[in-house]
Amino acid sequence: MTFILREENLTLFFEYLEGKYELFAPVSETQHEAHFEKVAAKYVAFNPRLSPQGPKKFIFPYKRELFLGPGKKDKALVGLHFSDIAGIAILDKVFKYPIIDQEYFDVREQFLIVGMDHFTAPKDGYDLYLQVIDDYFLVTVGSPLGLKLAGTPLLIKNSKITSEKNLFHFDDILSHKRLSEAVEKSYGSKIWDDLSQRCFGCGICSYVCPTCYCFDVQDSFDLKGNSTRTRCWDSCMLSAFTEIGGGFNFRPELKKRIYNWYYHKFVRMPKEYGKLGCVGCSRCIVYCPARINYLEVLEDVVLEMEGKRGKKPLRVK
Amino acid sequence: MGKNHYELSDAQILWIEEMAPGKRFFGIRFLKESDQRKFTFVPGQFVFLSIPGHGEFAVSICSSPRKRDHFELLVNKVGSVTTALFGLNVGGKVGIRGPYGNGFDLSKFYDKDIIIVAGGCGAAPLRSVVNTMIYERDKYGKLYFLYGARNSQELLFKKDLMDWQKNMKVLLTVDMSDKNWQGETGVVTTLFDHVKTSKSAIAITCGSPVMFKFVLVELKAKGMADKNIYLSLERRMKCGIGKCQHCTCGEKYACIDGPVFSYNQIKDNFEAV
C-alpha cells in the first residue's frame, strides 16, 4: 500500500510523528559525514551522507545490561538509507531464527523505523519508507503499525503512481552467481595470506558494518557488590575471539580470522538465512585504516576460482 | 514474546569431589523442586554455569539423564569463572541455564559394538553416554572405553572406571608413568591394539584437538565408516543459541549443530578438526 507525501508537508509529517516518538535522524556537521542524533522534526530531511554508524547502535546497542526487559515503543529512527534498512531486516532475521533472542527484540521493538532514500522501497525491515521523487515522496507501508500511522491526512492514498523503478543496485561482484561458492572454495588461497599482510586486525570493519553482530557477555561488580551481566559487541577479527579457558585458541592466525569474516558474510549467512551478510553500504571500505576494499578481494577470489585472475575484471571500479 | 534464553535458574552445590589437581566433580541440584523435575537432557548436552559477577561458562553434563534428583559436572579450573566456582563450598549457589547442544541419539547405536575414546577431561560427556548405556546394556553389542590421560592422577572417574568393568572392557593408559601406575603407558591410540569390533562398529570420541587427529587416523585404519564416527567438539561459547559466533566451525555452530558431530558431517569442514 502506498501514499503520496508532498514535499512541502515533510516537516508537518515528522512533527506528527514527533508527537508520539522521539526522533533520531542522520545530521551533518561536516560535508563528509552524518551522525545519528536526536533531532527536532524540522531538521529531518534526506541526508545522502554516510554515517559511520548506522541504526545498528540503536537497535543492537554497543553495550546493554541483560534482563532489563522490553520498553515502550517511543523512539523512531528516521531518514534511514536503503542499505541500513536492509541491515535491520537482516538483524531481525538473525535474532529470530532458528532460536529467538529475546534480549534483541526487547530493544528492537522500542523503535519505529522510517526510511528515506531514492531507491524503490525494500521488501522489509521498516514501518514506513519514503522514496524521494522530485517534489514528493512515495510512501510505502511496511508493517501494521506503519499502516496505522499512515492514517494522517498528510498522506494521500495513492493508486495512480507506480513506484519509479529505481532498484538498489548491488556492486556487480555481490550479485555474482558463484560468489558464495568462490569464497567457500578459496580456503587456503594465497589471497588470504596477502590480505593478512595488509589488514591490521583492528575490527573497525565489524564496528561500522550494519550486519556484523558478534557479541560477548560480560559480568561485573559495582562497589556495593551488586553484579550485572552485560552484552557488548565483539569482533571475530580480534585475536581472543576463539580463545578458551586454559589458553587454546582455535583461530590464532589473522588470516584465518579474516577468512572467517568473509566466510560468515558470503557463505554461512546465505546458507542460514538465504541472504548475503552484506548490504553494500561501503562503510568498511571508507573506514578501513589499511584501505582494504572487500569488493576487490571478492573479485580476486571469484577470478581465482575461474582461473582468470589478472586477466579480466568482473566489476566496474 | 519469546523465552529469554539468558535467564538463569538457581541451583546449589550438593557435594564436591577433588578428582585431580584443578579438576573438581560437582553434584548440582536446582533449588526449585519443579526446576529439577523438569530438567531433562540427552547425553552429550551441556549447560551454562553462572557465578553472577564473574561470568558464565559452558560445561558438559557428565551424569546420566536417568539420574533425576541432581546432575553432575566435571569442571577444570582454567580461568576466572572456574576459579570463582572453586571458591564455593557445599551449599554454594550457582546459576544454571540449559540444556544446550544436540547431544547423542543413543537409539542410533542399538545392536552395534561401540568404541568410546576419551582424552583427559573429554571423559566427562562420555561418562554421561556410558552411564546411560549401562541402564540398557543389552541393547548394545561390545562396549569399549579407551581412556588416556597425562598421568595416573589425571585419570578421572576412577570409581566409574572400576564399576564399568562389570559391563564393558575398560582400557587405560597414561602419557607418563609413575611408581603408582601399573598399567599401560603411551597415547590413547596405543590401546586400539586391544580392540576387536565388527566393521559396523560405532566410535565416540572426546578430547583435545590434537587427540582427534590421531584417533581419526586409527579409526579410519580400522576401516570405520565416516558416518559411524562421532566427535564431541569443544569451542568457546557465549550464547548457546547460535548467534554470538564464538563457536562456529565453518558452516556449523558447535552449540546448536553440535557439539556432537558425526565425522561425515565435518570431514570437509575447514576448521572443525
UniProtKB/TrEMBL annotation, chain A:
Cited InterPro entries: 4Fe4S_Fe-S-bd, 4Fe4S_Fe_S_CS
Protein name (Swiss-Prot/TrEMBL): Cytosolic NiFe-hydrogenase, beta subunit
Pfam families: Fer4_22 (PF17179)
Domain 4Fe-4S ferredoxin-type span(s) in chain numbering: 188-220, 267-300
Species classification: Bacteria, Bacteria division CPR2
Keywords for the protein's UniProt record, in alphabetical order: Iron, Iron-sulfur, Metal-binding
Transmembrane segment boundaries: none
Alphabetized GO MF terms: iron-sulfur cluster binding; metal ion binding
Domain of life according to the entry: Bacteria
The keyword Nucleotidyltransferase is assigned to this record: no
Automatic annotation (TrEMBL), chain B:
A GO molecular-function annotation: oxidoreductase activity
Cofactor: how and how many bound: Binds 1 [2Fe-2S] cluster per subunit.
Biological-process GO terms, alphabetical: pyrimidine nucleotide biosynthetic process
Binding locations of [2Fe-2S] cluster: 239, 244, 247, 255
Gene3D superfamilies per the UniProt record, alphabetical: Dihydroorotate dehydrogenase, electron transfer subunit, Nucleotide-binding domain of ferredoxin-NADP reductase (FNR) module, Translation factors
Keywords, ordered alphabetically: 2Fe-2S, Electron transport, FAD, Flavoprotein, Iron, Iron-sulfur, Metal-binding, Transport
Name assigned to this protein: Oxidoreductase FAD/NAD(P)-binding domain protein
InterPro entries, per the entry: Cbr1-like_FAD-bd_dom (IPR008333), Cyt_c3_hydrogenase_gsu (IPR012165), Dihydroorotate_DH_ele_sf (IPR037117), Dihydroorotate_DH_Fe-S-bd (IPR019480), FAD-bd_FR_type (IPR017927), Flavoprot_Pyr_Nucl_cyt_Rdtase (IPR001709), FNR_nucleotide-bd (IPR039261), OxRdtase_FAD/NAD-bd (IPR001433)
Obligatory cofactor(s): [2Fe-2S] cluster
Keyword Transport included in the entry's annotation: yes
